[in-house]
Design goal:
By secondary structure, the chain is an alpha/beta fold. The chain has ten helices and 16 strands.
Length: 327
Amino acid sequence: MFKALQLQKTEAGFQAAISDVDESQLPVGDVRGRVDYSTLNYKDGLAITNRGPVVRAWPMVAGIDGAGVVTQSSHPDWQVGERFIHNGWGYGETCWGLMAEQASLQGDQLVKLPAAFTTRQAMAIGTAGYTAMLCVLALEQHGVTPASGEILVTGATGGVGSTAVALLGKLGYKVVAATGKASEAAYLEQLGASAVMDRASLSAPGKPLQKERWAGVVDAVGSHTLANACAQTRYGGVVAACGLAQGADFPATVMPFILRGITLAGVDSVMAPLARRQLAWQRLAQDLDPAKLEMMTEEVPLARAAEKAEDLMSGKVRGRVVVRIQP
């Protein structure tokens, strides 16, 4: 038996609770792992609080992310004792996730833990931080350099935003962090922001074309914020879009794309190919300051994961929440 955060829907309603699970109930996989740490991402918050239609099979074990040690393997690339990182792939949605002491996994979907990180640090990064790195890679691959100009990061106190600010700051970019939490300005400046702006100036409907400012954008918010960011992006600039905290709509026009030649680069972390994941984690090991990672990290035990998920969805969390799985 092992403990897991199980999500259930019954006639009595929805429940998220720690349960004892028999190993025989684990799904089929070619790698079995002991999970040391998981983490709370926005999608985990939606699932655990039942505020979004994330879970598609019941009962479900929560947790799209996990890091730990291989305990059994029939996969040629994985040996017992090796440390792994798992991000996405529909876990915690369509198949059992990793907020559990044990998990059954697919070796082709796992990334080997870089030597620079502990399993705790890997989950302090989690899907949110890995997505932030994918956004930075998108900017780089479209030619945005530190010399190009200011980079806007929206949702800056969230997991994606905080990590993006830290990464871009260390890489030498001039970062402007947009947030609705004026009290967190010092935190964002410590992470690497050169300026902090009120998200309210981006979150309402705006003109199709606005004064050019941004050489690049990392947007985890969507809706009017993304539309305004595009309208303010300089000629030839790049907007990396990866989230929908404000909404999934995109109330924009084609004007920034056909008159300023900007690029809207969609960033997906859930089904990204293994090679791209490996590159992102290699770059995280190289470019993310461990001290700044720790600055944005809070740790809770598995027993408090559901409580922190409520806080996350209520906007009471900044940065990253690591969930300690083992007692």
